[in-house]
Every structure is written in C-alpha cells, then in structure tokens.
Design brief:
41% strand, 2 domains, 508 residues, 5% helix, 8-stranded antiparallel beta sheet, Methylamine Dehydrogenase, Chain H, single chain, 3 helices, mainly beta
C-alpha cells in the first residue's frame, strides 16, 4: 500500500459560491481552544464544545470532535458522525472526506460515493468536479464518478497589482481589466469579489513581516479602519463577514462594524472549572488537525567568517547564551533536549515545553536557516490508534512503501522546503536572500519553546535538527530526547495551504 501526502489547496472562490452562502444564520466562533456557533446578533446558539468548527455550506457545518471530523445541521445535531481524518465543506450536496490514505466524495448522509484519486476538488454548480489522478492527469467527472473529459486545464485565478486588477479566463487570457478606485489607503494588493474589495498590506518594518487585510464595499459605504490577520472571502455576502484578529475569529456586519460576542458566562464557568486563582494564567491547548509550519527563530552574534551572511534576513533577538555551571547539559557534545518537567508558555497563550540546543564542544556549529528559522521540525511516531512507541525501526521520510505503523513522520514543515516538496506546482516563492547560516559557538546554547500538542492519538514525539560542523562542513541530522505527546490523524499528512487572501487557521 502506498501512502500519499496530499496537498489541499484553498483556491479563491468564484462568484457563484459567494451567492449560494448568503443566507447563513449561524457563524462559528472560538472561545479559547473550543468552538461553537453564534447567530447574527452575537448570541451563542451552539455551545463551544468542538475542537474546530467551520462555516455552514449547503445546510451543514464541518466540526472536529475527539480528533475526527463530522457535520452538524443548523439545530446543532451531529448528523454525520465524527469519523473522518479531514473533510471539505459541502458544495452542491457533496463533500470530500479523508480516512488515512483514502480520499473520496460523500453525500449528506455521510455515504461514500466514489474516490481513489490522488487529489479531489469541490463540485461546481454545473454538477462536475475536477480530479487529479495518480498518473498526473486532470479529469472532469460527474456526481456518479463518470469521466466526462480528460486532459483538462486547471482554471487560473484572479490576480491583481497595485494600480490595476484583471480577471483571467480559463486559458490565462485577460477577460476584464479595471482601474483601481482606491484612494487614501496604502495597500500592496487588491482583489474584487462582486461589490467587495479585499486589500492587503505587508508591514516591512514589523519583525514578523506579516500581511494585514482590510475589506471595503463602496456601494454600501464602508471601508474597515482596522487591519486584520485574515479575511474569509467566502463570507463577504453573509450577514456577518468572518475575519481573524490576534489569533481569534471575529466578525463585522454589513455596515463594517465589529460584532460583539457575549462570553461573560463562558468566561466565569471556565475560570471556576480551572481551579486557578485570579493571578494564574489559564493556557489554551494546542489542538490542530494539519501539519504545522515550523518557526524556530534564533540569532548569532560575533564575527565568524562564513560563506554566506550569518546575520540573516530579519535577524532574531533570541541569540545564544553562555553555558554556566548552573545548567546540567551534557559535556563535550552537541545536544538538543526537550524539558517536559515544567510547563512553558508557547506563543503567549498555549501550553508548551522549553527546549535547548547546546554546544558543549570545542567546535563552532553551523546551521542552515531561512529568515533566522532553523532547519528544525517536530516528528511523531505514526500510529493508527494509541502507540506505546515500542515498534519504531526507522525514519520514513523518504520511504512511503509498506507499513507505516511505528515510523517517525514530521508533523511540522519548513517554509523553505515547501516549494520543492510540492510537485504539482509552485505554491510559495522562496526569497533566496532570506537563506543564510547561523552558528553556535563553543560553550553556548539557544533556548526555545515548542507547543504541547494535544490530540486523540497518544504517541511519542521528538525534534529533528540539521547542522554542519565548522571543521568538516558535513551535514548531519540529530534528534532530541523522545517524549510523550498526542496528535490528531490528519497531522501526519494534511498540509493546510492557503491563498493570499485567507491566512492559515482562519477556518472555512
């Protein structure tokens, strides 16, 4: 059995999809690490009991419970049990579901229709869907799985520049061209969705170099005066438009005003259930259902001549520190160790662990880096159910044949490797100027943190790091100590990619 990593692309939505979802009455919201649904007034209709929740499509909404995905109706009833590793939304009565290495279409009763192809795409209004075969061919199929057309070209999407924006037909020819009527707003890109304009701006003076988004509708007379982390274009015609700000889902109404959600009762119940005092932080659980982008930033100081810049692009302030007698690091060795004895705060709100990269040798150690991020990822042993970690006999990163059980697999990916990892087309353009080297001089260490992963499957975790010695220049792989953790099924294979108008983890 051959297991394929699937790369699911969230493409820009066409206008017909915008129209069909304009009657939504319930909207997902996140309360710390749980999800529920509100109505247009911001009142809680479905309590936040889910690990993830998404927008309603065709009368059903995708939710994740106990690590697996199912679907609820507008009454909150789980009408398709949580049984899938991952799933798409319903479009015209059909959704895409995933179980292990099997992807297939399902109907609204959860019944499997057909599948067995490498990549599946949503059905359109005309009753057809595009599929991508394991032989590398695009096909057009109907709802019975019958092949209608072979060798089709995939449709290009809209693209825009700062002064004008154009719409392309399926052959890549310019179909329409518009002059931008944006005035008084600084932006890098702008995109039209019917009467709505989504604009973006990347603050090059911010350390994170993060892109921010805004939305406008000149016919309705509003332009958002707040920059958001993400905007979901599929909700633009809804009563509430879905956005993301400071890591949380939020909404604006059709007048451009932010909708408030009353969570006072939930806050009180959460506080009472935690047993914490008023001064204690109640950290959120890091519970996801996709392969996460790794981002472990460090910095180097001093003057060691190297072939490429060691300062890097967007240099990190997390520079190495001197090893003193107070630390019980291994002598005369390069080591990476995860400290699970005490909890650490990860990204300000999540449970995490602290880990250390230590150089107790007499040699300077060099590391390839991208934007000051190390070539370092978290790995998990692959287990269909709970795993005691006793049957691992190797690393499966380059060996996809045979039984996966007990092998190590990355549950994080490196941005710099994503372009070469995806064979179906360029998704991210890597800036070669951001590639550089970092170094760790003798008797120093870096201190970082990782998330404490939560999920339905109990397994073993470890860190994988690539480095080079100054003397030999040979690339070497090293691993941290193994430690217990939990993951969800889709974390072994689901790359949650995104387009430039919707950031990761926004939902939908």
């Amino acid at each position: 059995m051959r297991y394929f990593k699937l790369f699911l692309l969230l493409f820009l939505v066409n206008f017909s999809v915008l129209g069909q979802n304009s009657e939504r009455t319930l909207f997902p919201f996140n309360f710390y690490d749980s999800w529920g649904f509100i109505n247009v007034k911001g009142e809680i209709v479905v309590s936040p009991i889910y690990e993830e929740a998404f927008n309603f499509h065709d009368g059903l909404a995708k939710v994740r419970l106990d690590g697996y995905f199912g679907f609820i109706d507008t009454s909150g009833e789980l009408v398709i049990p949580n049984q899938f590793d991952s799933a798409s939304d319903f479009h015209y009565g059909i959704a895409i579901a995933y179980k292990g290495n099997h992807s297939f279409y399902i109907n609204k009763k959860g019944k499997e229709l057909f599948g067995g192809y490498l990549m599946l795409y949503d059905f359109k209004e005309d009753g057809y869907a595009t599929i991508f075969t394991r032989g590398g061919e695009f096909l057009l199929v109907n709802k019975k799985g019958e092949i209608i057309k072979k060798g089709i070209n995939f449709v290009n999407e809209d693209f825009f520049d700062k002064k004008t924006y154009v719409y392309l037909d399926e052959y890549g020819n310019v179909k329409e061209k518009y002059e931008s009527n944006f005035k008084g707003i600084e932006y890098d890109q702008i995109q039209e969705f019917g009467d709505y304009l989504v604009y973006s701006y990347r603050d090059r003076y911010e350390k994170s170099y993060q892109t921010k988004y805004g939305v406008a509708n000149f016919k309705k007379g509003f332009v958002t005066d707040t920059w958001f982390d993400g905007i979901n274009p599929k909700t633009l015609t809804d009563n509430l438009i879905q956005l993301k700000n400071n890591g949380k889902i939020c909404y604006i109404n059709q007048q451009g005003k932010i909708a408030t959600i009353d969570t006072k009762t939930l806050e009180l119940n959460r506080f009472l259930a935690s047993g914490k005092t008023s001064t204690d932080a109640i950290l959120q659980k890091f519970n996801i259902s996709h392969i996460r982008e790794a981002s472990y930033e460090v910095g180097s100081i001093g003057n060691i001549p190297v072939s490429r810049s060691h300062g890097g692009w967007l240099p990190s302030k997390n520079v190495f520190k001197k090893i003193t007698s107070m630390y019980n690091f291994k002598p005369n060795t390069l080591d990476i160790v995860v400290d699970t004895e005490r909890n650490e705060i990860f990204e300000e709100v999540y449970e995490g662990y602290k880990f250390y990269i230590t150089n107790n040798t007499k040699d300077s150690i060099f590391f390839e880096a991208y934007q000051s991020k190390l070539d370092l990822v978290v790995q998990a042993k692959y287990c269909k159910d709970d795993c005691d970690g006793s049957n691992c006999d190797g690393d499966l990163e380059s060996d996809w044949e045979g039984d996966w059980e007990g092998h190590w697999e990355a549950i994080e990916y490196l941005q710099k490797d994503l372009e070469s990892d995806i064979k179906a087309g360029t998704i991210h353009l890597i800036d070669n100027h951001a590639l550089h080297q970092l170094y760790l001089i003798p008797k120093t260490y870096w201190e970082l943190s990782i998330p404490k992963y939560h999920g339905i499957i109990k397994t073993k975790l470890r860190l994988k790091l690539i480095y080079k010695t100054q003397r030999t220049g040979k690339e070497t792989i090293m691993y941290s100590n193994e430690f217990e953790g939990n993951v969800n099924p889709a974390q072994y294979w689901y790359y949650k990619l995104y387009d430039h108008t919707m950031k990761p983890d926004l939902g939908d």
